[in-house]
Amino acid sequence: MSAALDLVVAAVDDTVPGVRSVRLVRPDGGALPGFTPGSHVVVTCGPPGAPGNAYSLTGDSVAPRAYTISVLRLDAGRGGSRWVHALTTGDRVEVTPPRSAFPPVLAARRHLLVAGGIGVTPILSHLRSAVRWGRDVEVLYAHRPGAAAHLDDLRDLAGDALTCLTDRTTLGDHLQRRLADQPVGTHLYTCGPAGFMDTVTLAARRLGWPDERIHVEHFGVDDLDPGEPFEAVLRASGRTVPVPSGTSLLDALEGAGLSVPNLCRQGVCGECRVPVAAGTPLHRDLVLTDAEKAAADTLLCCVSRAADDRLELDL
Ligand code: FES
Q1: Of 217, 249, 274, which residue constitutes the final position of a domain?
Q2: Residue list, ligand 1 pocket, CB within 6 Å
Q3: Which of 9, 80, 110, 132 could cross-link 53 (Cys pair, CB 3.0–4.6 Å)?
Q4: pLDDT per residue over 116-131, tens digit each?
């Protein structure tokens, strides 16, 4: 993975209650790597040793001079959002290069973007790209009254192609109608709370949308089950490291004295990838492609485990 970027907070915006938007730039003001629409970065800005958190980039993906993120404050979370809400102009943060698991399908005939709450962030990135390249696009944005992040941006970009929905009944009815009334070749992209995305994808599937035209963006894998216990065998030393239920492979390896690079510990940054020599990984990350998962020769050890009782690692 490319080296993390050391960026400076250039501005913060707290206009929408509970949501902080942060603009990050290079200390020298130079250009930042471009990115695929829908990309996220992992931002590390908490106390020493704190894990990073993944946030979608909301700005223009072409030749950016700044990265912008918008973060909903969650007081019950792991702390990442509170740390972002404590940032002030001039603070330094570590940011991974952008990574995408939610890119637009360029061959799509039309793009239907469906956002729920703060899930609007990658949807905004998709919308910017669709408008820039003249693609046919429609946006549905479900939000609480008075709590819509980036509403002005969406209005400016989408115009009449934007529909805002602020109550469940209207949302359900409108979603049903719009999903049923799209030309063949339309791709659906959705991001928001897990229950919201389940509602959107279930409605689409019931209307006959094929899975390859439904795209979902998750922000992390907080709710994983504790998993079955297994043994990790380290090929270089022949050591066996037990991995109990409820303990991640990463924690077990660190407990055995190994140093494994990591950032997010949530299966979203890709930093903790380790090579698999034998055995079948049980992949639970949001980074590896389907082909990489099928190859079974690597896994992200912060969230993924063994499908059987033993996994041999090239460590
Ligand atoms: S530490 Fe980020 S994917 Fe494992």
Answers
A1: 217
A2: 262-265, 267-272, 285, 287, 300, 302
A3: 80
A4: 999 999 999 999 999 9
Alpha carbon distances (Å) from 254 to 132, 220, 266, 300: 46, 21, 16, 14
Please state the pTM of the whole predicted model.
0.80
The reply to whether 102 falls in a domain is no
To test ligand 1's pocket by mutation, which of 266, 286, 289 has the most ligand atoms within 8 angstroms of CB? 266
Query: Which one of 300, 304, 305 would you pick to mutate in the ligand 1 pocket, going by the greatest count of ligand atoms within 8 A of its CB?
Result: 300
Residues 121 and 169 in one domain: yes
pLDDT tens by residue, 50-64: 778 889 999 999 999
Q: Tell me what pLDDT residue 223 has.
A: 58
Expressed in angstroms and rounded, the spacing between residue 206 Cα and the centre of ligand 1 is 34
Encoded tokens for 217: 């963006």
Ligand 1 atom having least distance to the Cα of 300: 4
Which tokens go with 173? 């009815």
Domain span at residue 147?
Answer: 110-217
By C-alpha distance, which of 253, 238, 250, 314 is closest to 284?
250
